[in-house]
């Protein structure tokens, strides 16, 4: 491929972005754009899948049948979100199997929030209110992301997430109208999740090296600090409505800025959790690995059955799928 | 059976939400065969509504063209298994919260 | 693009268009719970013993509740994401049936509801689910055991849904309007569960050597709870006589025929295995359960019981 052709393609790609049009799967795109997208969408998908566990932890113990149904349906929605996002990733040539292997081998990350444990039923509500609330701040702008399939997945996901956030808030509000023990349970849960929720927007802008490029490509629409501010401003009146105290003594309205001032979370703890030192990192990945490995014989059985029923569909074996993931990765990058 | 069999092929799912409309692409999923793809589509993309018509098509069975795809050399996904159909545009103003 | 084109060609218009589709509950977005009993006559049928009706509702309600519990344990653990979603859908269907039936038991005969502290806001369906001891549960023992592997779950679901569908089909004409409405809703759901289970039973039986041996092992593990499904209690027999309930013995032949069809296409012999015996003359319907069951309940009831006046 000549340099001139390269430049033409790049110019066309950038012109599409400049017109605020979407990049679609079969368009030419710079390899770094593709790789960045795969990494971001995969990380997002993994977060949905790993995110099933902390709340799933309480399905069998939900204290009312209505809450049990709501919780099970919510965790099910998260499986759906993971599925949509893995599909978006597959349009970029990376299969779900490869992505799953990168997750369970620790090569790709997921949101650090899910490395914290859920220790009471109130956590189900707090995750809905704060964690899904933070996720919405992060995700709504992604509905307009430059890559078509990703944006379309996000539209569906955002619709469901806003529902989840309201459900979480409603659970907490109901518990706050219950017994003293329940109110204490809610406050304790909010105390534990507030700081990790703030971390969900990523490190401060000054320490976020990839932000500028991602914004230029339209993959990312707002900076980490902008989103964090938005989340705090949104959460303060909601906390007041609930009757809970956010555990930040520095949290105060700044008339001049028109925003709340607030303290930063412990970024050393964040770095440690990202590096694998959170309370549940090993547990979460082991759970996913176990499900994937225990399911292998079922997936094989269905594929073998299908091949026997419809022998035509079996051949020719798809070339790229027959290679191990590493090889395919290299092939695409070369 | 070789180990590649533990990943089911990708299917594209098209749904007609109600009579009078075209089937439209709603997303993808994995299934071992056509029957399972339809079952999964009902579970994943609808609430198993009986009035809804679903098409499931193996992604690698779809012939696709793209206006910008002038030269096959420049279409990195054209030789991949995971060929996706042309997607449709969706409105920008998505309601949230 | 003209608005008309847009209307027909946008991938989401048909799904999300709020102008023309006010209700999007048919799509897998979030979860709204509608009341399938709206407008249904809830009076106990003339001449019927309310206590017997309540006991009967608990039987088929507890079957659904306990099976939903086991199926929900698959969440985040299924063989693939699509199956995770499918199993959760089945669990949600059964949970929905259980809620309606437990609530029906409470309205038919409030004395079946365990007492709670004065002023407790716990609704009757939850008092029944979370504050009854194991001996007061009326479910069959089939649904109680650990999930085992996917094959065990599929065999159990096949047996359970084939049997339950046969019961619900007949219950649609129950003299109790609530039971009839719940059954009508349940028939659609359980038809799907049965097809799901039968298809997987066939797939695993004719898949790989490993999957076939796992299905056969699953059949061994589950089949010993088969006969109990068709043993009527006095309550079931008497409600069947009065046109309110179904005598499970009367569905045995139909269930056997359907299962034989599945076994036949799957190349599996109908098992001939010893069956679990009675405990002091009683079975699941009489409150005599397996050892696994009290563990299940201890887990399910732990949070609710810690907060008998809790508001959720």
Helix vs. strand class of chain A: mainly alpha
Straight-line distance between termini of chain B: 48 Å
Number of strands of chain B: 3
The fourth-level CATH homologous superfamily of chain B is: Phenylacetic acid degradation B
Q: Mean pLDDT of chain B, as a whole number?
A: 70
Radius of gyration of chain A: 22 Å
Q: Report the sheet-strand fraction of chain B.
A: 15-25%
Strand order of the largest sheet of chain A: 1-2
Name of the CATH architecture of chain B: Roll
By CATH, the topology of chain B is: Ubiquitin-like (UB roll)
Report the span from N to C terminus of chain A.
Answer: 13 Å
In the predicted model, the low-confidence regions of chain A spanning at least 5 consecutive residues are: 313-334
**Average pLDDT level of chain A:** 89
| CATH level 1 name of chain B | Alpha Beta
Q: Can you characterise this structure?
A:
The complex is a heterotrimer of chains A (334), B (97) and C (312). Chain A is mostly helical. Chain A has 15 helices and 2 strands. A two-stranded antiparallel sheet of chain A has the order 1-2. In chain A, a hairpin with a 4-residue loop joins strand 1 (252-254) and strand 2. The two termini of chain A are 13 Å apart. Helix content of chain B is 12%, strand content 21%. Chain B has 1 helix and 3 strands. In chain B, a hairpin with a 7-residue loop joins strand 1 (10-16) and strand 2. The N and C termini of chain B lie far apart (48 Å). Chain C is mainly α and 312 residues long. Chain C has a single domain (49-272), classed as Ferritin. Chain C is 56% helix and 0% strand. The model of chain C is unreliable at 1-26 (pLDDT under 50). The chains are: A mainly alpha (334), B alpha+beta (97), C mainly alpha (312). Chains in contact: A-B, A-C, B-C.
């Amino acid at each position: 491929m000549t340099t001139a052709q390269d430049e033409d393609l790049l110019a066309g790609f950038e012109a599409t972005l400049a017109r605020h049009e979407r990049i679609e799967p079969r368009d030419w795109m710079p390899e770094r754009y593709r790789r960045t997208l795969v990494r971001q969408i995969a990380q997002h998908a993994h977060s949905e899948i790993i995110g099933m566990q902390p709340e799933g932890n309480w399905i069998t113990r939900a204290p009312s049948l209505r809450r049990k149904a709501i919780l099970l349906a919510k965790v099910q929605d998260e499986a759906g979100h993971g599925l949509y996002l893995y599909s978006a990733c597959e349009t970029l040539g990376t299969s779900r199997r490869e992505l799953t292997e990168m997750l369970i081998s620790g090569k790709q990350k997921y949101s650090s929030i899910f490395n914290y444990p859920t220790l009471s039923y109130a956590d189900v509500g707090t995750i809905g209110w704060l964690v899904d609330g933070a996720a919405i701040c992060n995700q709504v702008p992604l509905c307009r992301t430059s890559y078509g399939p990703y944006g379309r997945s996000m539209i569906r996901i955002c619709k469901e997430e806003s529902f989840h956030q309201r459900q979480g808030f409603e659970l907490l509000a109901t518990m706050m109208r219950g017994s003293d023990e329940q109110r204490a349970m809610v406050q304790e849960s909010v105390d534990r999740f507030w700081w990790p929720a703030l971390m969900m927007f990523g490190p401060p802008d000054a320490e976020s090296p990839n932000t500028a490029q991602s914004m230029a490509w339209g993959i990312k629409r707002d900076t980490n600090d902008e989103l964090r501010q938005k989340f705090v401003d949104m959460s303060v009146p909601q906390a007041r409505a609930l009757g809970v105290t956010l555990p930040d003594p520095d949290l105060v309205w700044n008339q001049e800025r028109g925003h709340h001032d607030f303290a930063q979370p412990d970024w050393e703890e964040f770095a440690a959790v990202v590096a694998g030192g959170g309370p549940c990192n090993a547990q979460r990945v082991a759970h996913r690995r176990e499900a994937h490995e225990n399911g292998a014989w079922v997936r094989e059985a269905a594929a073998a059955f299908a091949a026997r029923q419809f022998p035509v569909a079996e051949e020719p074996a798809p070339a790229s799928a027959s290679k191990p993931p590493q090889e395919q990765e290299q092939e695409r990058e070369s | 059976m070789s180990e590649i069999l533990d990943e089911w092929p990708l299917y594209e799912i098209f749904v007609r939400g109600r009579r009078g409309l075209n089937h439209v692409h709603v997303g993808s999923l994995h299934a071992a065969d056509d029957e399972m793809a339809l079952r999964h589509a009902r579970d994943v993309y609808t609430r198993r509504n009986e009035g809804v018509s679903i098409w499931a098509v193996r992604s690698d069975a779809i012939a696709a063209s793209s206006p910008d795809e002038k030269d096959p050399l420049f279409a990195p996904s054209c030789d991949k298994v995971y060929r996706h159909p042309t997607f449709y545009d969706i409105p920008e103003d998505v309601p949230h919260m | 693009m003209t608005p008309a084109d847009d209307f027909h060609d946008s991938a989401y218009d048909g799904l999300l268009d709020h102008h023309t589709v006010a209700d999007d509950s048919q799509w897998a977005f979030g979860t709204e719970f509608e009341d399938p009993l709206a407008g249904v006559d809830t009076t106990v049928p003339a001449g019927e013993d309310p206590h017997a009706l309540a006991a009967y509702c608990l039987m088929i309600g507890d079957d659904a509740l306990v099976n939903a519990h086991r199926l929900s344990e698959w969440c985040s653990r299924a063989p693939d994401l699509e199956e995770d979603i499918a199993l959760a859908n089945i669990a949600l269907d059964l949970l929905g049936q259980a809620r309606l039936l437990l609530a029906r038991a409470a309205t038919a005969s409030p004395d079946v509801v365990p007492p709670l502290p004065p002023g407790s806001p716990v609704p009757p369906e939850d008092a029944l689910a979370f504050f009854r001891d194991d001996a007061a549960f009326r479910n069959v023992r089939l649904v109680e055991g650990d999930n085992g592997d996917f094959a065990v779950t599929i065999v159990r679901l096949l047996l359970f849904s084939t049997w339950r569908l046969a019961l619900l089909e007949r219950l649609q004409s129950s003299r109790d309007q609530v039971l009839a409405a719940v059954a009508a809703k349940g028939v659609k759901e359980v038809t799907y569960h049965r097809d799901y289970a039968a298809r997987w039973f066939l797939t695993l039986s004719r898949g790989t050597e490993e999957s076939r041996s796992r299905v056969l092992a699953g059949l061994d593990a589950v089949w010993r709870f088969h006969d109990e499904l068709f043993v009527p209690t006095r309550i079931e027999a008497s409600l069947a006589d009065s046109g309110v309930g179904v005598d499970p013995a009367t569905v045995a032949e139909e269930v056997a025929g359907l299962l034989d069809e599945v076994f036949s296409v799957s190349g599996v012999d109908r098992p001939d295995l010893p069956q679990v015996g009675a405990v002091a003359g009683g079975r699941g319907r009489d409150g005599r359960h397996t050892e696994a069951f009290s563990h299940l309940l201890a887990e399910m009831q732990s949070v609710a019981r810690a907060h008998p006046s809790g508001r959720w």
